[in-house]
User: Which sequence fits this backbone?
């Protein structure tokens, strides 16, 4: 369990509330009510109140402030004791009390937080509010003796890598009074979203996947003098990042806000730099976009940055290698950002925003009779379903011009399928890599085609084994990605609809076509003609004889 303090929240307000003096007794207490002021929740946030100064009110209207024991030696701007209290009152009399606006409050809050962090022994808070497990929009710090309190927020994390958001402010609590303070605890960290453009989450090998990452800058950005913002995208082996090694910077386009279509000049590295490296495992690719501090601080709080880049799905999306799950190419982006306005190197990381891309297979089983496997059948896979098989039994793969070429992974055997897959971009362009148009069933009758995405496909049987009838129409195969890598594969064959493995039955070709077929029609017509010819000859011969 890791606990870290961070100064500041969204509003990052350090409030100093003054009150009318009055006589205080030992039993007089007050409270601070923290409210989010909107739909946000305090779930998971823990607040601590440290009493810095005790306050005593006298009957003559005078007030005395005394530092509590842990803060007796605390100083700020070389001020201590009464001089520091006078300075705090001066700050309180100003109208602008937001830390991001008044650098004096920011400096005071910084010194108080550092004093608490480095104190030996550790300073015990006057009030420790446990982090709520359920969503709540208000927390009450009750039974607080009169005085000045420095309040910090912290987040507990089970992860050692990711850190959260907090608040830091100073408030004066009076007896018999309630001080209500509105804070928005989540505004002090960027929010990140990653998505693919015009994609349903599935794609075939060789497909270019366009990614878009949006980063919403925090609303308290104005209170930082320095600000680290770095986006790191880790792509597993199944994705090939598209970039020119000689010009990595041009591979990432950055735009401001959804309504601003103009991009930052990719040749100008004053805004951001791009690094492309290989992960320690030797497989993954790490793309790092590091924004320059001056550029980020020049943007308005709440600005949204859009990062666009692409990667191509490759053959390793099919293999269970390293972090590659069968049929998945995963990638995730993490943004590192400054959490402490007084120490820019005090950074946190957003949880990984992961966007997987899935591929799938189709399986074919060729058989005859009582599901006896049949080898030697030829097929062609296409995205076009309008090719018409000829009436003869000759192979017709040559008339299919729009087809999906595939590389052969395994030729198959009596016990194993023939395995084909979609080629990578490099393989498709390489003339030394054999691409197959025709897919042939091995003795097992099984064919597996890997690396496909969703959409309609058409499987043509272009040549049947000797003595078997070829299919008279293509098989329509519909691949639907249901989400999260779940695919539904349905097919239609001669009016029969089914799902799963595409089962193709071949029947033995008959020497005599069925009744009504064109073969027997020719036989009947031929027979009638022959018989008529024979009758005519007999008639002629008889006539000759009678003469």
Assistant:
């Amino acid at each position: 369990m890791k606990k870290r303090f961070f100064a500041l929240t969204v509003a990052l307000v350090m409030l100093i509330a003054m009150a009318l003096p009055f006589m205080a007794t030992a039993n007089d207490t007050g409270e601070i009510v923290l409210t989010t002021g909107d739909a946000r929740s305090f779930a998971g946030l823990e607040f601590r109140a440290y009493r810095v100064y005790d306050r005593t009110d006298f009957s003559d209207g005078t007030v005395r402030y005394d530092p509590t024991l842990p803060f007796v030696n605390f100083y700020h701007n070389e001020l201590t004791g009464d001089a520091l209290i006078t300075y705090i009152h001066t700050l309180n009399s100003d109208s602008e009390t937001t830390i991001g606006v008044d650098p004096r409050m920011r400096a005071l809050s910084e010194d108080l937080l550092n004093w608490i962090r480095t104190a030996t022994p550790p300073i015990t808070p006057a009030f420790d509010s446990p982090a709520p497990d359920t969503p709540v929009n208000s927390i009450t710090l009750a039974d607080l003796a009169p005085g000045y309190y420095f309040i910090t927020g912290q987040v507990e994390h089970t992860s050692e890598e990711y850190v959260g958001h907090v608040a830091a402010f100073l408030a004066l609590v009076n007896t018999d009074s309630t001080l209500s303070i509105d804070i928005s605890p989540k505004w002090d960290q960027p929010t990140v979203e990653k998505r693919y453009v015009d994609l349903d989450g599935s794609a075939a090998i060789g497909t270019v996947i366009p990614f878009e990452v949006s980063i919403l800058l925090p609303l308290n950005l104005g209170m930082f003098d320095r600000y680290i913002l770095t986006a790191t995208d880790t792509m597993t082996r199944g994705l090939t990042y598209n970039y020119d090694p000689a010009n990595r910077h041009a591979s990432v386009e950055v735009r401001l806000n959804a309504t601003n279509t103009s991009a930052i000049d990719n040749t100008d590295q004053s805004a951001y730099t791009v690094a492309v490296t290989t992960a320690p495992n030797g497989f993954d690719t790490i793309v790092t976009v590091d924004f320059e501090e001056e550029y980020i601080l020049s943007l308005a709080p709440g600005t949204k940055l859009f990062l666009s880049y692409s990667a191509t799905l490759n053959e390793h999306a099919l293999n269970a290698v390293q972090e590659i799950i069968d049929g998945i190419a995963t990638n995730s982006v993490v943004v590192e950002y400054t959490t402490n306005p007084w120490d820019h190197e005090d950074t946190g990381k957003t949880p990984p925003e992961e966007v997987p891309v899935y591929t799938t297979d189709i399986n074919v089983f060729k058989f005859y009779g009582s599901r006896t496997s049949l080898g030697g059948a030829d097929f062609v896979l296409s995205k076009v379903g309008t090719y018409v098989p000829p009436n003869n039994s000759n192979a017709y793969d040559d008339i299919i011009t729009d087809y999906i070429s595939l590389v052969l992974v395994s030729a198959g055997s009596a016990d194993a399928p023939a395995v084909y897959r979609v080629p990578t971009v490099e393989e498709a362009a390489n003339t030394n890599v054999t691409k197959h148009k025709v897919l042939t069933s091995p003795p097992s009758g099984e064919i597996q085609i890997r690396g496909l995405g969703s959409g309609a496909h058409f499987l043509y049987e272009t040549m049947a084994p000797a003595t078997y009838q070829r299919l008279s129409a293509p098989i329509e195969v519909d691949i639907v990605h249901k989400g999260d890598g779940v695919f539904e594969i349905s097919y239609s064959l001669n009016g029969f609809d089914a799902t799963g493995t595409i089962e193709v039955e071949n029947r033995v070709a008959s020497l005599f076509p069925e009744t009504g077929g064109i073969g027997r029609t020719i036989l009947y017509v031929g027979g009638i003609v022959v018989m008529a010819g024979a009758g005519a000859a007999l008639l002629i011969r008889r006539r000759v004889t009678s003469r």
